Amino acid sequence: MFLRLLSDVRWQATHPKWRRMTCSRRSTSSTAEPAPVPLPAEAQVVICGGGIMGTSVAYHLSKMGWKDVVLLEQGRLAAGTTRFSAGIVSTARHLSVELKMADYSNKLYQQLEQETGVSTGYVKTGSISLAQTQDRLISLKRIASSLNVMGIPCEIITPKQVAQLHPLINIHDLVGAMYVPEDALVSSANVSLALATAASRNGVQIHERTSVSHVSIQKGRVTGVETDRGQIKCQYFVNCAGQWAYELGHSGKEPVHIPLHACEHFYLLTHPLKEPLASNLPTIVDPDGRIYIRNWQGGILSGGFEKNPKPLFTEGRNQLEIQNLQEDWDHFEPLLSALLRRMPDLEALQIMQLVNCPESFTPDMRCIMGESPTVRGYFVLAGMNSAGISYGGGAGKYLAEWMVNGYPSENVWPLDLKRFGTLQSSRTFLRHRVMEVMPLMCDLKVPRWDFQTGRQLRTSPLYDRLDAQGARWMEKHGFERVKYFVPPGTDLLDLEQSKTFYKPDWFDIVGSEVKCCKEAVCVIDMSSFTKFEISSTGDEALENLQYLFSNDLDVPVGHVVHTGMLNEKGGYENDCSIARLSKRSFFMISPTDQQVHCWTWLKNRLPDDSNLTLEDVTWKYTALNLIGPRAVDVLSELSYAPMTPEHFPSLFCKEMSVGYANGIRVMSITHTGEPGFVLYIPIEYALHVYNEVMNMGQKYGIRNAGYYALRSLRIEKFFAFWGQDLDAFTTPMECGREFQVKLEKGTEFIGQEALLEQKQNGVYKRFTMFILEDHDTDTDLWPWWGEPIFRNGRYVGKTTSSAYSYTLERHVCLGFVHHFDEKTGEELVVTADFINNGDYAIDIAGQRFQAKAKLYPFSSLFTQRRRKDEEELSGYQRE
Amino acid sequence: MPAPAHLFPLIRNCEISRICSTVCYCHHKHLCCLSSHFAHSHFRCAPQKKFAALYRPKENFNHFIHARDYTSTPQRFYLTPPQVNSILKANEYSFKVPEFDGKNVSSVLGFDSNQLPANAPIEDRRSAATCLQTRGMLLGVFDGHAGCACAQAVSERLFYYIAVSLLPHETLLEIENAVESGRALLPILQWHKHPNDYFSKEASKLYFNSLRTYWQELIDLNSGETTDVKEALVNAFKRLDNDISLEAQVGDPNSFLNYLVLRVAFSGATACVAHVDGVDLHVANTGDSRAVLGVQEEDGSWSAVNLSYDHNAQNEHEVKRVRKEHPKSEEKNVVKQDRLLGLLMPFRAFGDVKFKWSIDLQKRVIESGPDQLNDNEYTKFIPPNYHTPPYLTAEPEVIHHKLRPQDKFLILATDGLWETMHRQDVARIVGEYLTGVHHQQPIAVGGYKVTLGQMHGLLAERRARISSVFEDQNAATHLIRHAVGNNEFGTVDHDRLSKMLSLPEELARMYRDDITIIVVQFNSHVIGACQNGEL
């Protein structure tokens, strides 16, 4: 009954046209059932799922001119999670792309009623996020900084101001709050129906009560869709099946892994108050109490994200069960307590219902968007982590752009389906991980946070050895990597207590690891990096790689080349090091999370040629990174080969023996700008080589180190990392890496034109290094990433990564500087002069710190200038 | 759909007042005076604690009022949860039986026992022991009245009488020869005792001699037949009661012992004893303690099966039996106001020679007895309408039960438990406790009018109920927590627990009786294997 009230479905009457097209919606009441409209035999796009996502994709596709679209819904439109949604449109998001999606959605929904004539229930209520602790307030201030530079009104307010905005709130335990006045409430089902209405006016065909059994795939491409009402041939399929997306992905012969899992999600509906609440009363989010509260028909709607979620449908179920989920009051008890603590006056308010609606969650709390890595034309938009309404508009727009233009207008890598592989698709993994993810919705988001579930999946053969030596681990793409080594006798804080926005407890530990890298030698296990081998019988490998990569790969055998794998716009799809092992074979090292993306990119672009082989050898090698001035000595003693720069120059690769083990690929790169080598060791030799290195290294003061030390080293050297600093919207020109592009290498390559144009016209953003000036490492908030950069008091961009430089004894932030026209806001060319002549400040949670901008690293501060990178860098500098 | 009444703890705050208003009935069930007239004429003296069992209800009430007078206001002592726990757990005891002790596989996993005093000192006793010369385990609860002396003696001695009754002829001979030649005795029982469970050292020689006389008679009688457990239990009960009676008649040169045996004989005790040997479970019961078997049904729910009959006025067979044993003329007076001779609640008991001896014998023993006995109003008092003694017997009713795999546990408890809780609830609470599964009815609001505050209160209680399970490591403690702390929703209410446990000594007995519980857990695997003839 209440569902009726909630969705307030009125679209049937107002849109008779559409009613004709859809099959009987009233099958239960009317006996004379009109025959359903037959399915078309063919369509360009078939969308599965009539919730907010499916209708939004259909809406945006049709707006962009793709009209041959069919939307299939197994039940009724907006009948799944969408119908049960709380209808809160909130722009307070941590991730910039999520923030942009939510902002777009808000603006879209606001005008949707006018556009379609369908009432959406849109009310601009604003939202108040409460902070019970100082840490929470810092977290809110960080979001507020992001919102403000995006032009979204937002302010940090005092508890007293909270009380003025909302009459029922108990403010005694609050330290502050964030007020976002433009956040809104909608009727989620009606928004979905409005989008469907607009789409169908644009020519999209909508068929309810039609379920997709599987997607037909031929030669790795979508060819059609099998439904319970027949087949539709199509070029594109969009899986917007929400919590059923995983099952649908696995229904065909070639599975598409969509890692999401449903959890029960509860919210409470009450009868109206004696004095009914105003419909424009702000929505309250109390993350410390794990609850949200909105006004609902004069009463309230309040739900939350409990600490002990109940995952469900692990084995997969049919859709009907969503209707019959049990209310679980005992489970809801902590949230009810939090609600009554926040609004004590509600004690006498009468309960209407406790709603149990399943929500789908993903392994990293971010939604899943994009094309399947294995099946071309198979797109996915699902896994909204309970923010489907907030993201619905923006996500649908980005996916439509992706399909129509080949790429969305924003960097969506954080949401890309290809960030996952098959390894995140285990049901057990998903079940365990979502039980951690759901409580995280309300947990404090602090820097350097690692998931605790689904761990120890991929490990190096040295895992146990390193663990026994005090290694603390983080996880990337399922692979365990060392953060740092806790020396014996040192106690660090336990996980929960170590959460901080300030100086972390491992500060001195990493400091000593960095020192050792600078002065002696350290070993870092870097086995997680993605490693491919590309070889051919003829020259195909070289020819193709020359086309796919921007740097010149036609180098003598044994040389290593740093190069970008660029897209047509010159942006980085991948940033890698490629060693030429022989005339016809290449060894390619990419970041860990590139395993799926890079593979797909290469597979889709390499010719289907039996002479050309691409192999993923990630699992075959253990990589040990020997960093430091004494690495030379350790290695030459172990191999009885001279390793000095004269014999083993920088960016060089050679197979040699280390200890008893033969066939170790030694490369003179360290990914940090420090001297040293990376050893690629066939895994069965890993333990032997590690032992040999550690034994031999003892007299040179060798020690283990972790990724935090590596990170500090590379950031103080101004090394950009793909996935953090570099993305598909960043070109080599924009980050001072022109030297890695050979525009005149004699062959064409992807992105060449765009880069040529950029070279002529200049760049519109520039990767810059900032050294914080008046920042006290011990007492001030630490930068993380995503902090706004101000030049002469005006916003010019955001940071992408930061670290404490133990050499400079200062914080270093890396980020992009734009040049917005002061009047029009238009983006202008960024010149070196523009960068150099400005006073900069970095905004950390609302507090601005003076920063010095630099376009080149402090080469003079660091040891020898013998690395090729730097010679090239300095050469570039002279230009 | 649960009843709406279960949804709203509307009367949570007025519980204690309700309890107070309903306490006018007498909890001193075992002994109670016949008529107000009689009581007034004979019992004006200030009651002594140990023999304070003979008030009539009205006086009881007066006493209560009186107590209130000098404490000025009914004081409410609030106990914190840890204080409550320390009271509840003071007497708890657990014993785990090794599944295979080198000789036998045991069908008993172990037992939990506990007692909560209401009388000061407590008049309940408990015993548990493993038979060493025969197979099997003995467990028993003993509810004393008119003092604890008899219950104490029975708890010390009864199992020896049972064990001896069960012993084969050769073993008896062996033991007798050992005693004769001053050699070390074969141990007969291995006791499992809580540190607070004591044996009286002074009487051990006397008790031993009586026991030795018993086994000597058994040796002389040598029937040659293998001993039947049922018969052995009956014989042991009767023999012990007989010995208690004889010892009191004969007396002892030691004045302390002399007084002791008289106190034992003049006080009384019921006994409920279980003997478990493999799948054979025998329960011998005398009086109104009770043995209940916890059975798990196929659907996982719990049901209770009685393994004893209460010997009191609620048991028609008992009433008939007692009436039949006495002339028609006494029919009206033998059972009066649901009590034996209008005085005693249990219809069978150890001791209580006032209901067994002739008036002459009673007078003679008292007169020749020590002064303390002579000065005591209770002992001197002869029950009214006392014409054809004995009116009371210690002979037990024995029920034999073949254990099945679905029989998960046995609860032996004194009437202090059974008068507060129904056996079905007891079985469910213990069953859920032992399996760790809690069949809480889910709450559904449905069409009822419930406010957020009411729901919040209800949920908090339900959570407390679950958490109370995890507080207890002992099933008997858990049961006592429920027996004392349950509110009208069947959940443990801390406030109520706190109030019940903080009652002053002189008031405690009015709200509750001594509670003694033994929960024996069975090993279903062993029982299943026994059934299939594998063992």
Automatic annotation (TrEMBL), chain A:
<dbReference type="Pfam" id="PF01571">
    <property type="entry name" value="GCV_T"/>
</dbReference>
<dbReference type="GO" id="GO:0005759">
    <property type="term" value="C:mitochondrial matrix"/>
</dbReference>
<protein>
    <recommendedName>
        <fullName>Pyruvate dehydrogenase phosphatase regulatory subunit, mitochondrial</fullName>
    </recommendedName>
</protein>
<comment type="subunit">
    <text>Heterodimer of a catalytic (PDP1) and a regulatory (PDPR) subunit.</text>
</comment>
<keyword id="KW-0809">Transit peptide</keyword>
<dbReference type="Pfam" id="PF16350">
    <property type="entry name" value="FAO_M"/>
</dbReference>
<dbReference type="InterPro" id="IPR027266">
    <property type="entry name" value="TrmE/GcvT-like"/>
</dbReference>
<comment type="similarity">
    <text>Belongs to the GcvT family.</text>
</comment>
<dbReference type="Pfam" id="PF08669">
    <property type="entry name" value="GCV_T_C"/>
</dbReference>
<dbReference type="InterPro" id="IPR006222">
    <property type="entry name" value="GCVT_N"/>
</dbReference>
<dbReference type="InterPro" id="IPR036188">
    <property type="entry name" value="FAD/NAD-bd_sf"/>
</dbReference>
<dbReference type="InterPro" id="IPR013977">
    <property type="entry name" value="GcvT_C"/>
</dbReference>
<dbReference type="InterPro" id="IPR032503">
    <property type="entry name" value="FAO_M"/>
</dbReference>
<dbReference type="InterPro" id="IPR006076">
    <property type="entry name" value="FAD-dep_OxRdtase"/>
</dbReference>
<dbReference type="InterPro" id="IPR029043">
    <property type="entry name" value="GcvT/YgfZ_C"/>
</dbReference>
<comment type="function">
    <text>Decreases the sensitivity of PDP1 to magnesium ions, and this inhibition is reversed by the polyamine spermine.</text>
</comment>
<feature type="domain" description="Rhodanese">
    <location>
        <begin position="45"/>
        <end position="85"/>
    </location>
</feature>
<keyword id="KW-0496">Mitochondrion</keyword>
<keyword id="KW-0670">Pyruvate</keyword>
<dbReference type="Pfam" id="PF01266">
    <property type="entry name" value="DAO"/>
</dbReference>
<dbReference type="InterPro" id="IPR001763">
    <property type="entry name" value="Rhodanese-like_dom"/>
</dbReference>
TrEMBL record, chain B:
<dbReference type="InterPro" id="IPR015655">
    <property type="entry name" value="PP2C"/>
</dbReference>
<comment type="subunit">
    <text>Heterodimer of a catalytic (PDP1) and a regulatory (PDPR) subunit.</text>
</comment>
<dbReference type="GO" id="GO:0004741">
    <property type="term" value="F:[pyruvate dehydrogenase (acetyl-transferring)]-phosphatase activity"/>
</dbReference>
<keyword id="KW-0106">Calcium</keyword>
<keyword id="KW-0007">Acetylation</keyword>
<keyword id="KW-0479">Metal-binding</keyword>
<keyword id="KW-0378">Hydrolase</keyword>
<feature type="domain" description="PPM-type phosphatase">
    <location>
        <begin position="108"/>
        <end position="522"/>
    </location>
</feature>
<dbReference type="InterPro" id="IPR000222">
    <property type="entry name" value="PP2C_BS"/>
</dbReference>
<keyword id="KW-0809">Transit peptide</keyword>
<keyword id="KW-0670">Pyruvate</keyword>
<protein>
    <recommendedName>
        <fullName>[Pyruvate dehydrogenase [acetyl-transferring]]-phosphatase 1, mitochondrial</fullName>
        <ecNumber>3.1.3.43</ecNumber>
    </recommendedName>
</protein>
<keyword id="KW-0460">Magnesium</keyword>
<dbReference type="InterPro" id="IPR001932">
    <property type="entry name" value="PPM-type_phosphatase-like_dom"/>
</dbReference>
<keyword id="KW-0904">Protein phosphatase</keyword>
<dbReference type="Pfam" id="PF00481">
    <property type="entry name" value="PP2C"/>
</dbReference>
<dbReference type="GO" id="GO:0046872">
    <property type="term" value="F:metal ion binding"/>
</dbReference>
<comment type="similarity">
    <text>Belongs to the PP2C family.</text>
</comment>
<dbReference type="GO" id="GO:0005739">
    <property type="term" value="C:mitochondrion"/>
</dbReference>
<dbReference type="InterPro" id="IPR036457">
    <property type="entry name" value="PPM-type-like_dom_sf"/>
</dbReference>
<keyword id="KW-0496">Mitochondrion</keyword>
<comment type="function">
    <text>Mitochondrial enzyme that catalyzes the dephosphorylation and concomitant reactivation of the alpha subunit of the E1 component of the pyruvate dehydrogenase complex (PDC), thereby stimulating the conversion of pyruvate into acetyl-CoA.</text>
</comment>
